[in-house]
From TrEMBL:
The lineage of its organism: Bacteria, Bacillati, Actinomycetota, Actinomycetes, Kitasatosporales. This is DUF7691 domain-containing protein. InterPro entries: DUF7691 (IPR056108). It comes from the Bacteria. Residues 1-198 form the DUF7691 domain.
Length: 198
């Protein structure tokens, strides 16, 4: 099974504050900006919607309102939250994490740890959604706070060329891409990295 990461440079508090806010204005703004994307996603998930899954806009409404959340087809709430993060942040484009196989994130984490970078882990992007959103296998979700990003970048900047040269070339490329995310977060004060694995 191939997976991918969707990553956003964003102040993690902004999308988190939308959950349960009841902010109709923000919901409408998100719906307007991503109208075409939502139609595409609803077409992709048409069979699930016919089986009772909410449309993406219905899921967005539930997330903004703080519920109610259906007990099945909970993946849609994760994709709605991803859309909220996209609205408040800037999407990161990269090559090392789309597509990838299940064990890839653990390999990159091992590489990070081997060079002394332990303030962040890419496998965190496969964890659960923030409460009160219902849990779902996919999309996974995780956050590197601005503080985590700053600490990890300090650790990375202390790494020697020799340490990088000892890494598997594919792992090194992925780690260097992670460093780019960290630099971008640093360039935008108060922002971290919010990621979704699907």
């Amino acid at each position: 099974m191939s997976l991918s990461l969707s990553l956003f440079i964003v102040d993690p508090a902004l999308p988190r504050a939308v959950i349960g806010s009841g902010d109709v204005r923000t919901r409408r703004a998100i719906g307007g900006r991503f109208k075409r994307d939502m139609a595409h996603d609803d077409e992709y998930f048409a069979s699930e919607i016919e089986a009772g899954a909410p449309t993406l806009y219905e899921a967005l409404t539930a997330v903004v309102d703080g519920g109610p959340f259906g007990a099945t087809h909970t993946f849609q709430y994760g994709y709605a939250y991803r859309m909220i993060c996209a609205f408040h942040g800037r999407r990161v484009v990269g090559n090392s994490f789309s597509p990838f196989r299940f064990g890839w994130l653990a390999r990159v984490d091992e590489g990070l740890k081997s060079i002394g970078v332990d303030a962040v882990q890419v496998s965190e992007f496969g964890y659960g959604l923030p409460s009160p959103l219902p849990q779902t296998d996919l999309p996974g979700h995780g956050v590197w706070s601005p503080q985590d990003c700053a600490a990890a970048l300090t650790q990375y900047e202390a790494v020697t060329e020799e340490q990088l040269a000892d890494l598997d070339p594919e792992v090194r490329e992925a780690i260097e891409e992670c460093a780019d995310w960290l630099r971008e977060a640093r360039a935008h004060e108060g922002r971290g990295v919010v990621g979704f694995m699907s």
